Amino acid sequence: MVRRDEAFVSGTSLRARGRGLLAAVAGAFTAVQLLLVRPWMGLGWDEVVYVSQVGTEAPAAFFSAPRARGVSLLVWPIASWSSSTTLLRVYLAVLSGLGLYLGLRAWRGLFPPRVLAAAGALFATLWVTLFYGPQAMPNLWVAFGALVTVGCFLRARADRYDRRAVWGVLAGAALMAWMRPTDAVWVTLPLLVLAVAARHWRLGAAVVAGLVAGGLEWVIEAYVGHGGLRERLNEASRIQGDLGWNFAVDDQLRSLVGSTLCRPCTGEMPHPVVFAWWFVLPLLALYGLAVAVWAGRTTRTLVPLLCATTAAFPYLFMIGYAAPRFLLPAYALLALPVADALLSLVTTRSGRWRPAVAAVIALGLAGHLAVQYVVLDRTVDRTMDNRRAWDRSAAELHRLGVRPPCLLTGHEAIPVAYYTGCSSGATGGHNANTTTAGILRTARSIPVAVLTEPGARPPRYARDWQLHRLDGLEVRIAPVPGAGLRA
To answer: Are strands 474-477 and 407-410 parallel, antiparallel or unpaired?
Structure first.
């Protein structure tokens, strides 16, 4: 009896230490975000679209077909009553730390705590993970959902009495579909195949139920506002450059230098030191699979590898541009076998350290972290400069009399309009939501301005409007309402 109690206490202590280790990684992730990404950084273009749907700063921006409402609901607790970007960033940083912790906890019992902690650290120290941690963007949340879904699926497969794991599968799939429905389908494809092949009907039903629960609003909105699901998918494909066979691996490599969106992706390749880790990652993951096969635990390593592959496939081979955030779900899943591989390299089967190998790997990781920090720092600086320019443009527009209620259209109208407190409109392109007649009609009652790049030709209807030069933009302001307009 005493021995059984001692074993129970020992097991409880080990589990507590494991949870503490994961909590430390998650807490450090939040702290480093707040230190390096700067909470006062203004909202970006896509963030403006999501936040404006529920915020008080400006009217809701146009919501295009590929987008889902998950991020808007995620930020609602803060954005619905406060316009403070700093408060929103702190909230998202804390929430993303919690998301990382829960994503790693979903794998308890499948990998030792030290492997899970190492995987979390590897994923959390990528510049793209840190950069998007405090941002109102969906991809990192798809990554957390992928960790929860795949981990709980494997736990439930191993223990059919683990009901919490089944609910975890449903919740993780719902989170992914809530954020990006098409990404959720790609991530869960191997799980659905495995569920059918192995007749795990309950798990397959949990995955499908989660996808339906998270994606139902998106489907309903497709029929209400886009003419049907097929039409919305086709429209989303068109906006993303017509999905099909597109070799985008080189585009992803170019974006690793810190390009948050590489479209078109025509720049030079960055120095190999910037993307070397990108080629090491799959090699270590495959080595991790070999270790798992040798140790007789193939499935728990093979399944996340397959899900990472299907998650990355459309962004490597079906889209004509790149953004580093697109691959966050794949990186999160790959981190597990990579961490397992690294720890197996630095220790013997008996658990003893290999000092020479450990020193080499530590040196490599130190160099990797240095590169990630440099890219992150430059990306944050560049992003801050761009968003300060929008803020300055908004202040100048206010000085010129363009104040809410108002309408902006043209180049960068969506972010500048948000910073100004105006509505945004477009007569063409991916965000078309009005017509020339509508713009002229609006100009009879509220201030309207057209933004263009310096030297660019404005729309015909605005050529005689008063010209002003802003920070990297030219603005033409319609005559004062009531003074008469010439179309």
So the answer is: unpaired
